[in-house]
Every structure is written in C-alpha cells, then in structure tokens.
UniProtKB/TrEMBL annotation:
Protein name, as recorded: FAD-binding monooxygenase
Keywords for this protein: Monooxygenase, Oxidoreductase
Pfam families: FAD_binding_3 (PF01494)
The keyword Lipoprotein appears for this protein: no
Annotated GO MF terms: monooxygenase activity
Keyword Acyltransferase included in the entry's annotation: no
InterPro entries membership: FAD-bd (IPR002938), FAD/NAD-bd_sf (IPR036188)
C-alpha cells in the first residue's frame, strides 16, 4: 500500500473527531492526521469488512462514478488510490472516447479526450479509503456509535467534544453515554446530518438554506458484462432535458458487471419490473441502454431511491461561528445525484481544509466555510442550473438566463458534430474546466458552425473516429 504520509503543519490540536465514515469523512480524516495527534472517526453503522452496502449510505446501492476531478483529488489525498481502485476491478475510461453521451437527445462526438473517470461501486470506494485511513498512525474508527450532540465550553462559544453512545448490539458493546474530548469536530455525516439541531441546542444561529427542487427518482440494477456489449465501450449517459424528463446511464464496474440506472423527474418514475424497465429504456434517446437490458444477464434486483431536492447550507454567511466545529460533504451541500458530483466535491473540500490548516488554525470555521462556499459554487451551478432548465423547477431566473439557455441548447446539438465542443462540455461536467469556458469566443464560433451539421434529437449523428 502506498504511503500517504506527507509534510504538514505542526500539530497544534491534539484530538479531532470526524462524524461519518463515508467518502467525505474519510477524506477529512486523512487531512486531519497532518494537524492532529489523534483522529477518531465515528459512524452509526457497523462497518463491513468487505465492500457491501450499508444503511447509513442508502445511495450506496445506486450507480456511482468518480469524475475526472474527483479522481485527481483522491489521488492527491491518497497517492496511488485510483491504481488500487482499478486493481480491485474498477473500470478506467476516457470519458469522451470510451462512452456514448446523449445531450438533449444528440449523441456527442466520441473521440479521445484525456478526461479519465472511474466506474466502481460506492461500497468498493469506501472500503479502500477506509483501509487507507485505518492504517494511518493515530487514527481510530469507532463504528456502531451514535453521536448524541456536541459538548461545549461553559460560554458555548467553542466545542470541547462530542457526546456519544454505542448502538445496541454493535461492536462497541452496551456501555452508556460518554463524552469524547476534542479540539476540532467535523460533521461529515451526510444528508442526515443533525448539525442544525446541535447548533440550535447551543443557542447558535442557523445558516440560511437554498433548496432547488430536483424531484428525482432513480432505479439501479446490475448486469453481467460480456465482451460484445456496447462494442467494448465502458459506459453510456443519457441526460434528461426539458420535454424529456427521463434519463439513464450504464457504467462498467468491478466484478465484471455493468451498473444500469434509469432516472425520472417531475412525475416520471422508472419501474422496477423487467418489462417496465425495458420499455422505459426504449423511450430514451439512443438504443444502448435498452439493448443491454435485452441481452445481458441480471445479477441482482432493482433498487429504487428518491431525491427530492438539492440543498445548500450557507454557513459562510453566518456572522458568528461555533469554534472548533466544521461541516463538510453532503452535510454542507448535497447535489442532484444525476450529476455525480458528491464524491468529487467532498474530496475537494478536504484538500481545501488541508491548505487552511497548513496556514494556521485561528478562526478556522469562518475561513473554511467561506473558502468551501467558493469551492461549492461550480458544482452547485452545474447541478442547480441544470435542474432550473426544467420549467417545473421553482427558482430565480434572470433576463439573461433565457439567452444563455438557448445558447447552451445549440451547444449541446453542436457537440454531436464537433469533438472540441464535446470535450469541453464533458470537461466542465467533470469539473476540469470552469463553466465560462463554454462561452469563450472560439467556442461560440464553433457552435455557430457545427450546429448546422448536427442531426435531430435522438440521432446525434454518430460521428466517431471509427464511424463518421
């Protein structure tokens, strides 16, 4: 196993507690080992010893992809991680060259891009990260343990630890409540975070919240992967659009299988029976997903999940912060899962925290939340902005938004005829390029030229190096 040791700041804090042993919590724990003598990771679940779904991560059964930016971030935090992921069976793919992308019904031009992403189940990603973190000096992982609340100094301006209790029947036994002293507590417990309740109990102000209705229902099922499937491609993505609030994706992952997800919004709900799933897939632009459902052997039962809204908590706008308390990952901002940004955003926040800790620990909550807000801006813009394309979604739309939407609609069509436009679109989606890159003068000119060559929705003019 590759060493994760790296130079870091002097250890000014003796003990840090991370709530949540998911991707966000494990990434944060890795960073804190540079600044703290001890790090304790706490999770409600009894953590599995092999990759397996768990109750605390209900989305763990659904299709997951590690975006190009997320792969770089996790390799920065855990050198060699993506090599280890591939060795465990995950797929490594050129995002544009090894997959079909249907944007507004147009199939994007397929060509090598150098944008490398990975297909792996969420349990596999967590298992490998958890093993890395558990091997670090000074780290302890306590599973089957519930966090009851925060312990604070008498003036309630700073935390002093967390109150915990072993869950009945868990590996930690049946001992009663105890307080773990800590200099720093990071809540990375996901969408079920109780941070707002804890702050309210201590009399601290609560952050404003932005909520964008997503109204997503998605169903994932896994199938045996054969060499003839997809002509050897690694994946397919069909992105829903106004007038077609349906989508889907399939992706090669470990154990020689494909994960297939069908997605619906605003009343469109994928079924879970064989005939219904096939009929739903046949209604999508492009034949790929339906063809796989017809020919591949299913390996499990379909699993359905609902996601009502993307939610962002604006801690950066608070005038007063609780000393020693941070919030990260989905507990800070959760995105429509159709965009696949969660793991990437979490890893980026951990890298940001490492940079801030290296600069010192004074006023850390204010500094972290302000910097994290800037880091979250791009994925939030992509997810919330994508959902606001749908007229069913409530939200503020300025006069320029209509013009921008019309341009991006033409852009998606043009990306079927121009490999550069297709690459830039995917680079933005994978957070490797800023969204403004889509509107650069050179790209505007390409859109005007290529849009005339693009086929109608659903055809995508199958232009690739092998078939033009």
């Amino acid at each position: 196993m590759a060493s994760t040791a790296r130079p870091g700041p002097a250890r000014e804090r003796t003990h840090a507690v991370v709530i949540g042993a998911g991707v966000a919590g494990l990434a944060v724990a890795r960073v804190l080992t540079d600044a703290c003598e001890r790090v304790t990771v706490i999770d409600r679940d009894t953590l599995p010893t092999a990759p397996a779904p768990r109750r605390g991560v209900p989305q763990g059964r659904q299709l997951h992809t590690l975006l190009a930016r997320g792969a770089l971030a996790l390799d920065e935090l855990f050198p060699g991680f993506t090599d280890e992921l591939v060795a465990a069976g995950a797929s490594r793919a050129d995002t544009q060259g090894d997959a079909h992308w249907y944007l507004d019904g147009h199939r994007a031009y397929r060509a090598p891009s150098g944008l490398i992403s990975y297909g792996a189940s969420r349990p596999l990603v967590e298992q490998l990260l958890r093993a890395r973190v558990a091997a670090l000096a000074g780290v302890g992982i306590r599973d089957s343990t519930e966090v009851l609340g925060l312990a604070a100094a008498p003036d309630r301006t700073r935390i002093t630890g967390v109150r915990v209790r072993p869950r009945s029947g868990g590996a930690s036994g049946d001992a009663g409540e105890e307080t773990l002293g800590a200099d720093l507590v990071v809540d990375a417990s996901g969408r079920g975070s109780r941070a707002l309740t804890w702050l309210e109990e201590l009399g601290h102000p609560l952050p404003a919240r932005t909520r964008v209705r997503a109204d997503v229902v998605y169903v994932t099922r896994r199938f045996r992967r054969e060499p003839h499937h997809l002509g050897g491609l690694m994946g397919v993505a069909v992105v829903g659009f106004p007038g077609m609030p349906r989508g889907g994706a399939l992706l090669a992952e470990e154990d020689g299988r494909f994960a297939v997800v069908l997605v619906g919004q605003f009343g469109e709900e994928p079924p879970t029976d064989d005939e219904g799933m096939l009929a739903y897939a046949e209604s999508l632009p492009g034949p790929d997903i339906a063809e796989l459902l017809r020919t591949a052997e299913p390996l499990d039962r379909p699993v359905k999940m609902r996601y009502p809204a993307s939610v962002r908590h604006h801690y950066e706008k608070l005038g007063r912060h609780l000393g020693g308390f941070l919030v990260a990952g989905d507990a800070l901002c959760s995105f429509n899962p159709a965009y696949g940004q969660g793991m990437t955003a979490a890893a980026q926040q951990a890298i940001l925290l490492r940079k801030l800790l290296a600069e010192g620990t004074d006023d850390l909550p204010r500094r972290f939340f302000r910097a994290a807000a800037r880091a979250v801006d791009t994925p939030w813009l992509l997810a919330a902005g994508g959902d606001l394309r749908f007229p069913e979604v409530e939200g503020r739309r300025g006069p320029a938004d209509g013009l921008l939407d019309r341009y991006l609609t033409r852009y998606r069509a043009a990306a079927s005829a121009d490999p550069v436009l297709a690459r830039t679109f995917l680079a933005v989606a994978h957070m490797m390029e800023p969204p403004a890159r889509l509107m650069s003068p050179g790209h505007v000119l390409r859109v005007l030229r290529a849009a005339r060559k693009a086929g109608g929705p659903g055809t995508g003019r199958p232009r690739t190096p092998a078939a033009s």
